[in-house]
Every structure is written in structure tokens, then in C-alpha cells.
Write a structure and sequence with these properties.
Blueprint: H1 47-50, E1 68-72, E2 76-81, E3 86-92, E4 102-107, E5 112-117, E6 122-126, E7 132-134, E8 147-153, E9 160-166, E10 176-179, E11 186-190, E12 199-204, E13 210-215, E14 220-227, E15 234-244, E16 249-254, E17 257-265, E18 268-275, E19 280-287, E20 291-296
Antiparallel strand pairs: 1-2, 1-20, 2-3, 4-5, 5-6, 6-7, 8-9, 9-10, 10-11, 12-13, 13-14, 14-15, 16-17, 17-18, 18-19
Length: 303
């Protein structure tokens, strides 16, 4: 999501100059040099022409489902592997959104990404080849036009739900809701018990937890919160220094850690890792693109 401005897509990139950051085994939190790399050689970028995103799938069918998936404001779709800090270009979304650009994203267990654009349209896309199709979702249901989003399992799973948090920027969020990915009906759950900020992104886990990152309304930083999925009650809140009210935000949980993606310029994003076990934070990587959405399947490792 872009926190301060809703801009039209600025054009697709043919490649991303990223392959691998510094060796994660070194234990350092800093970022390393960026190597030249193009699209993933193993990714079939033409698969959508034959199979589309309605291909027969099974639960957690592919190890690729366990990565963090990122979408940039220029419609580029990437996979990010925190284990080796590699970032691979999967393709460019071709969703029929006119001049609108991606705003937020969630990814389900089968590798389908749900991407809301900054005009309120919700699309369905493949994380494997970036093919995209429209959905019957009606923008503005119960006042939800723009929202952060994330999947979390129902209990221990494998069933899961798509949770969304309304964002208006100028006022506190209307709260939490779900979107049925079969009927595309939005069902409100309720307002948040507290609103540390006006903009929030969310991420869920395979053991039923739902988390969010609120950007502070003024200045820098934000709060990692755990959200009760049934009542929208904020169960816990931890302040972090990542992000600002004048940039973009994406948020993901992977392998026991939280990752915030916040813009640090017109063409760059900082990845900050927060370890809730010891309370530490570190600058994890830098990406030469403005990341506006992150989606993590509930198949991803919990620790």
C-alpha cells in the first residue's frame, strides 16, 4: 500500500537487478550487494496461456507457495525467500485495471494471489506466472474500498479465510472484515479495539493467528499487533521504528519473524526483520522497487 498517495501504475519493468543479498549464514542484519538477475529460469511465464489460474491444484502443492510474494507499484510480482534473501521476478501483472496500480495483496494455500488495486478493484492472480483475472467483488461494500489483507487458517487449518482491514488514511480504520473468495461478499467483523494508526497491513499464519502492522499517523514507526479474528480486539501491541506516514507499506510473517517492507525513496524499499522471540529488529535487505503488497501463504513455515 502507498500510505500518502494513490498513483497510477508507472509502467512495467522487464527485469529486476536482484538475485541474492549477503549470505544469511553470516548472521549480520545488514544488506549486501545486488547481483544481476532476470526472471526465474524455472518459472514458466507462459503457463497462464495454457493452464490459467484455474488449473487443478492440491493443498500446498508447491514449495514456491512457502515464499513471501511481493507486488510493486509498477505491477511487478516477485518471490522473496528470507532463507537466502533471494528475490525473483515472476512476471508483470496484466490485470485489466485501467490506469490503477496495486495497493495490497494476500496469497492463499494454492498459490493464488488476491490483489486489490488503488481504485478498489479486486483481482485474482497466479504467483507462478503473474496471470490475472477479474473477480465479481463489488468495491465499497460496508464502506471498504481500500484495505490491507492477509489469509489466516481457521483454527489449525487447512481451511482458511481472507481477512481485510479498511484503510481511509484520513481517519481511523473502520475495522476488520472477511471476504468470501467464492461469493466475494464482504462480511464486517467489527472495529478494532484500538487504532495505533490510520493505515494497516495484515498477515496470518498456518496455526490460526492474525497480525497487523499499523503505521503511526504522524511521524515514523508503527506497531505490530495481534488481532482477535472473531472480535477485532487488539490482543497485543509492540512499537517498531520501521516505516513512516509518507511512504509505502507491506507486511509479512515467515519462519517465526515479521518482515516490514517500507519505501525509502521513489524506487527503493527497506526490509526490516522483527524477531518477537528476543525483541530484536534489523535492517534485512533493500529492494530497488516500491513494494506495496506482501502475501504469505499459510503453508509457509511457522518458525
Amino acid at each position: 500500500m502507498l500510505v500518502t498517495a494513490i498513483a497510477a501504475a508507472c509502467g512495467a519493468r522487464s527485469s529486476l537487478l536482484i538475485d541474492e543479498f549477503d549470505d544469511p549464514s553470516s548472521g549480520g542484519g545488514g544488506t549486501g550487494p545486488i547481483a544481476d538477475a532476470g526472471p526465474d529460469a524455472d518459472a514458466d511465464t507462459d503457463a497462464g496461456k495454457d493452464a490459467g489460474i484455474d488449473a487443478d491444484v492440491v493443498d500446498c502443492r508447491d514449495t514456491g507457495v512457502t515464499y513471501i510474494y511481493l507486488v510493486a507499484d509498477n505491477r511487478s510480482l516477485y518471490s522473496f525467500n528470507p532463507e537466502d534473501r533471494s528475490l525473483i521476478l515472476r512476471g508483470t501483472l496484466n490485470c485489466p485495471a485501467g490506469g490503477a496500480s496495486p495497493f495490497s495483496m494476500g496469497v492463499d494455500r494454492q498459490g493464488t494471489a488476491y490483489v486489490v488495486y488503488n481504485n478498489g478493484q479486486l483481482f485474482r492472480a497466479s504467483i507462478f506466472d503473474a496471470s490475472c483475472e477479474t473477480t465479481p467483488f463489488l468495491s465499497g461494500q460496508h464502506g471498504f474500498t481500500l484495505f490491507g489483507m492477509g489469509f489466516a487458517t481457521d483454527g489449525a487449518g487447512p481451511e482458511e479465510s481472507l481477512y481485510v482491514a479498511e484503510i481511509s488514511f484520513q481517519a481511523p480504520s473502520r475495522g476488520l472484515a472477511t471476504i468470501d473468495t467464492q461469493t466475494f461478499e464482504l462480511t464486517p467483523i467489527g472495529p478494532f479495539s484500538q487504532n495505533p494508526g490510520n493505515a494497516i497491513e495484515m498477515t496470518g499464519t498456518g496455526d490460526g493467528h492474525l497480525y497487523g502492522y499499523f503505521i503511526n499517523s504522524n511521524g515514523t514507526g508503527g506497531h505490530v499487533v495481534e488481532i482477535d479474528k472473531q472480535t477485532a480486539t487488539i490482543l497485543s501491541s509492540v512499537p517498531l521504528s520501521a516505516g513512516a506516514s509518507s511512504g509505502s507499506l507491506a507486511f509479512a510473517f515467515w519462519g517465526g519473524d515479521f518482515y516490514t517492507f517500507t519505501s525509502i525513496g521513489p524506487n527503493a524499499t527497506r526490509v526490516t526483520r522483527y524477531n518477537p522471540a528476543d525483541g530484536s529488529t534489523s535492517d534485512f535487505a533493500e529492494i530497488p522497487a516500491v513494494i506495496v503488497g506482501a502475501g504469505v501463504s499459510t503453508c509457509a513455515p511457522p518458525r
